[in-house]
Amino acid sequence: MRPGPDYVIRCPGPNCSGVFLYPSIMSGNTFGAEYWTDGKCVAPMLPEMPQISLCDECGTFFWLDDLLDDAEIVDRSDPMFPWEDRNNTMFPIVRFLGTLEYLEAVEAGVCRTTDEELKLRLLAWRAHNDILLDRKPSRRGRPAPEQKNRLLTDSEWRQNLEAILALTKRRRSPEHRLVRIEIYRELGDFEAAKAELSKMDTSGDWGPYVRCLRELCEKRDSRVGRVQLDSMG
Ligand SMILES: [Zn+2]
After folding, report:
1. Residue 59 alpha carbon to ligand 1 centre in Å
2. What pLDDT is recorded for position 233?
3. Are 209 and 230 in contact (CB under 8 A)?
4. Which of 9, 10, 96, 140 could bridge across to 20 with cysteines, CB 3.0–4.6 Å?
């Protein structure tokens, strides 16, 4: 992984002076990556970056993409770097949201499009699975506080998955179909999962996912599983 520039992110909240550091990456790769049926790729050489964060001073959620274009770049190795202290407390690195916070962000109305809502709900779902499966993705960003990053309750979890189904209902891309299949399967609706699976072919990049999901549906197994990408070793 090659680090990219460090950006200074200023909280967009009204009258807030919150300042954060966003340590970007230039490039990475998926060597040694694990692939999971929920679409998560855990790649040691390709750390995850926060896509949305929260200012703990004023409680404003913000999308990093909105702020990065105009953000100034700083050199942290510069001895004149003004804010750095040993613990990064004055100038904290942007943090990830926790499972509950992704859903709170949806409630708070930060989504301008259905794509953004889908993004947050997928993040909530996969963050829940991270805890459930003890996955430890490599990350550039502070972790969410533990009380905001717990397993969702059964009803929170179910409600989120049903919302994802509704948001992807009319989408026909293989990525969206695979999300739907996996969600039907996790919810235990194997017939709906199989009906969607019948529309997928096993050639091409998604083949290993389709084969893995088919096998799990045959076994009526609703647990999140690993996908072996034979071609990638
Ligand atoms: Zn703020």
Report:
1. 6
2. 39
3. no
4. 9
